[in-house]
Specification:
The complex is a heterodimer of chains A (305) and B (284). With 305 residues, chain A is mainly α. Chain A has 15 helices and no strands. In chain A, helix 4 (88-96) packs across helix 5, helix 5 packs across helix 9 (184-193) and helix 12 packs antiparallel against helix 15. Helices cover 78% and strands 0% of the residues of chain B. In chain B, helix 3 (56-88) packs parallel to helix 7 (145-171), helix 3 runs antiparallel to helix 9 (188-217) and helix 7 (145-171) crosses helix 9. With 284 residues, chain B is an all-alpha fold. Chain B has helices at residues 2-32, 47-53, 56-88, 94-106, 109-120, 125-132, 145-171, 175-183, 188-217, 219-226, 237-246, 250-283. Classes of the chains: A mainly alpha (305), B mainly alpha (284).
Chain lengths: 305, 284
């Protein structure tokens, strides 16, 4: 008899749980949709005809009205699906106006070296912070942590002065060199390396391995996932940069795509969506291929220290 | 001796660069903050500091920056934790949701800015919707609502990343402990408060750190959204510093940078101290 009551109770509870779960699912679904919305809208709107973009959104950017010969709707029409699907924006961006591809290329040669070399430099530093822990090194690590926290504007004047002194102002080096020595990846990689069991390293040392071979043969391979995840975070950060080029470069031709897009609301919005999509393609590819690495790498740095 | 050389060689490259590009020039900043002119100036004592603390633009910027961090950081830390806990339950399509929540992080801010502008500008979609409801238009970008819009963008962009940090930490909570608690009749809430939360505490602090950095980085979005001279409610410390830089007012900028560094040092030290304490609690 009591068994049956128990059974009923669990059945009822699981039913209630089922409803709870369904409600939860719907909430998550709605929440997730709102997350995806801006990205989806950007993508679908990139298939609009140029005139349609101006017509629908011209009014948002009041200044545009006179510049455009075409009709500008009084009201803004945010559309999921263009009235007429066309590849015109892409045609103009990719085939007719090479300056966009040039700016895309600027973004590539600015961000890729920073990511690659920052990882290399940081791996060494992280190894040092992991293996040779002393009071002094902990102090240096604290300094690195602080530097990581500083907004770009704090190091603006220092970076600018150093660049001027080195004579690299108005060249990409003025952005790339400070970027390489930014301490963000050192912090994350150190946190990861410190989780490698000491016994693994000790065993290698007892087998006669020197520091260099412990570093290259044990620590770096074990850090592969963390490296990929940190590299992804860095890439998106530098791919996205706006402030540095504005300060360090005076030649507008040399600006990366991000800076160009930031001025678009005063210029040609008719192409903006296609350029925006072009600009997000690399980062979307990065997340599609690397999401598991990212998640895996993140799971390896727990606390702050 | 050789051993010492070998030991320091790993840090040498990184430290040399950090020294040249960040630490030594920081000396310049401190110097500038105590002289009256950048070139050939003489010692000005605390004058620059006193002047800055009476500068209306600086105070507005400071207030906005602190206000934004004070609201956005706790909100991000808790909301992302809720998301992680919810996604941890076996919801169908879990990995797809994870990808969706993570995607804003990977999309360049400048790319989706168009959509934010279309939504929130004065003639934008949301105001059009308000008009339909019989509600007046709100000038989001030029009123107190500006920070709210920025907060929304901040959460949209970062919640997924913080959520993943929590999900990773939740994965490391020992299963035996949770099973034991289930057998003892512990409820989900009890399991969360007494078992999971203590294990999560280092991650919570880590997310705090990341969210503080994120709350500074939001300047990029504000800049993209409202330009170099936004309305007073959106005027952040970074605007102040950028603009003083462009006006070659190095003393003012240097003084602000030094003050900001001191503030951040205090915050980071407090977080590290807190972590040390929590770490001890977990072991004891």
């Amino acid at each position: 008899m009591p068994d049956k009551v128990q059974e009923k109770r669990t059945a009822w509870r699981s039913g209630k749980r089922g409803i709870q779960k369904a409600v939860l699912f719907v909430i998550v679904l709605l929440f997730a949709s709102s997350f995806a919305l801006p990205i989806v809208l950007t993508m679908t709107n990139s298939f609009m005809k140029e005139e349609e973009v101006v017509m629908d959104y011209g009014n948002v950017y009041g200044t545009y009205e006179e510049a455009a010969g075409g009709y500008v709707s009084k009201e803004v029409n945010l559309k999921f699906i263009p009235d007429k699907v066309s590849l015109r924006q892409y045609e103009t961006v990719l085939l007719l106006s090479p300056e966009y591809l040039l700016k895309f290329w600027n973004s590539v040669i600015l961000s890729v070296p920073i990511v690659a070399f920052q990882i290399v430099v940081s791996l060494g530093a992280a190894y040092s912070f992991t293996r040779f822990r002393s009071r002094r090194r902990e102090g240096v690590f604290f300094l690195y942590t602080l530097l990581m926290m500083m907004p770009f504007q704090v190091s603006l004047v220092p970076n600018y002065l150093v660049a001027a002194r080195l004579g690299i102002l108005n060249t990409y080096w003025a952005i790339i060199l400070p970027g390489i020595f930014s301490t963000f990846s050192t912090f994350l990689l150190t946190k990861f390396m410190r989780r490698i069991p000491v016994s693994v390293i000790e065993a290698a040392r007892l087998d006669g391995a020197g520091e260099w071979s412990i570093f290259t043969k044990i620590c770096v391979p074990l850090c592969k996932n963390a490296m990929v995840s940190v590299a992804m975070l860095l890439f998106i950060d530098y791919w996205n940069m706006v402030e540095q080029p504005l300060i360090m470069l005076s030649d507008k031709e040399a600006y990366p795509l991000s800076v160009y897009l930031s001025t678009i609301n005063t210029g040609e919005i008719s192409l903006a969506f296609a350029v925006a999509v072009l600009y997000m393609i690399p980062t979307i590819l990065v997340i599609l291929y690397g999401e598991d690495y990212l998640v895996d790498g993140i799971s390896c740095y727990g606390g702050i220290r | 001796m050789k051993k010492r050389m070998e030991k320091s060689s790993f840090l040498a490259g990184s430290f040399a660069g950090v020294l040249i590009f960040y630490i030594l020039p920081f000396g310049y900043l401190i110097y500038y903050s105590f002289v009256d002119r950048p070139v050939g100036g003489s010692f000005a004592g605390w004058n620059n500091y006193i002047e800055l603390l009476h500068n209306q633009a600086f105070l507005t910027a400071l207030k906005n920056t602190i206000l934004f961090a004070a609201v956005s950081v706790p909100l991000a830390v808790t909301l992302s934790l809720v998301m992680a806990v919810v996604l941890e339950k076996n919801i169908p399509g879990r990995s797809l949701f994870r990808t969706i929540f993570l995607s804003p992080l990977m999309v360049p801010s400048a790319s989706v800015m168009l959509v934010w502008q279309v939504l929130f500008y004065y003639n934008g979609t949301i105001n059009r919707f308000f008009l339909k409801l019989g509600h007046g238009k709100i000038d989001f970008m030029n009123s107190g609502y500006g920070l709210l819009v920025v907060l929304l963008i901040f959460l949209w962009k970062n919640l997924g990343y913080y959520m993943i940090i929590y999900m990773a930490a939740l994965n490391e909570v020992p299963r035996e402990l949770l099973e034991a608690a289930t057998i003892d009749g512990g409820s989900d809430a009890q399991k969360f408060w007494y078992i999971k939360l203590p294990y999560l505490s280092p991650s919570i602090l880590f997310v705090c750190l990341m969210a503080i950095i994120g709350s500074f980085k939001i300047f990029k979005e504000v800049y993209l959204l409202a330009g170099a001279h936004p309305s007073a409610s959106l005027y952040l410390l970074q605007h102040f510093m950028n603009n003083t830089f462009l006006a070659f007012d190095y003393q003012k900028l240097a003084t602000a940078a030094v003050l900001l560094s001191i503030g951040l040092t205090i915050v980071v030290t407090a977080l590290l101290w807190l972590e040390g304490r929590l770490g001890r609690d977990l072991e004891g």
